[in-house]
Amino acid sequence: MLRLSRTLVRLPKPVQVLARRSLTTTTIAQKTTVGKTLAWTTVGTCLITASYLGLKEPAYSEAPAYVGTVEDPATHLAFPVFLNTDNEWKRLVGLGVRFVSFLKINVYVLGLYMRSEDIGALRQLWKNFDKAKFLENNDLAEQFLEQPYDISIRIVPARGTNTQHLRDGFLRLLMQRMKEQNLTEEEERNVLEGIQDFKKNFVSMKVKKDTEFVFTKTKEGGLKMVYEDKDWGTVNNKWIAKNFIMSYLDPKAPSSEAALIDIADGLERLLNESK
Q1: Where exactly are the transmembrane stretches of this chain (predicted)?
Q2: H or E element in which residue 172 lies
Q3: Distance between CA atoms of residues 218 and 130, nearest Å
Q4: Does the global pTM surpass 0.70?
Q5: Are 25 and 45 in contact (CB under 8 A)?
């Protein structure tokens, strides 16, 4: 089960909030000073906790009123519910571990983040989100990534590694997606140039467990790369930006099935939040 650790503001001091969740269920328990327990259970990830506790949406340029983390059950790595990128706050939609079955190892945990304003725009685009359809074919994911949204993938290694190893894994995902598409010669040349730019941006170094990479598909269509708050540059190639994130959202061969399912659950919850 995922454990939710959090810091809350504007709550009475004796109140303690506890939450645990699996990939599909959240339980939030509030203990009062007289020992009584109020509990709520809901389908989806723990991100709804903020609205349950009456906390407001964060302003984009200010720290959110609610701060907390979600723990991945396979690795016990914690992910913040809100992530700041380029002085804008994004909400965690879903997360999951990338597991290499033939090696039987957890490589990294990834989480997908979106701005609240982009979630609102997506709510208007998908008035009736069909989670089953999202998990059956890639039509909705393709449409999602064609929108001018800032979408971030936060990646945290589950073990010590190096940038060459991680880079080569990302490159294999991109090359595989390129082979599966019917690209013209010119389009293929453009993709290969983007892959070379992506490769060049990686600094050769060792990477410790529980350090942070953030890859952002910008609304302009580039892929911004950040490691531990250090800007590694932006690949100005729309195919690279879209397909990097699509490798985690394509139900035919997702890089992390756990993340895909949790992201689908998160989208279903967030898009129905105001209904």
Answers
A1: none
A2: helix 163-179
A3: 25
A4: yes
A5: no
In a domain, 17, yes or no: no
CA–CA dist 213, 197 (Å, integer):
17
CATH number at residue 104: 3.50.70.10
Q: Convert the pLDDT of each residue in 10-51 to its tens digit.
A: 333 333 333 334 333 333 333 333 332 222 222 333 443 443
- Note whether 106 and 75 are within 8 A (CB): yes
Are 44 and 266 within 8 A, CB to CB? yes
> Could you tell me if residue 224 is inside a domain?
yes
Long-range CB contacts for residues 49-52, cutoff 8 Å, separation at least 24: 49/4, 49/6, 49/17, 49/19, 49/81, 50/81, 51/273, 52/28
Adjacent-strand bridge partners of 235: 223
Asked if residues 156 and 213 have their Cβ atoms less than 8 Å apart, the reply is yes
Q: Which domain holds residue 152?
A: 61-271
| Nearby residues of 230 by Cβ (< 8 Å), 6 or more positions away | none
DSSP states of 135-161:
HH-SHHHHHHHHSS--EEEEEEESS-E
The two tokens of residue 214 are 């953030």
**Least confident residue range of 47-51, 88-92, 199-203, 257-261:** 47-51
Q: Please state, in angstroms and rounded to a whole number, the distance separating the CA atoms of residues 205 and 165.
A: 10
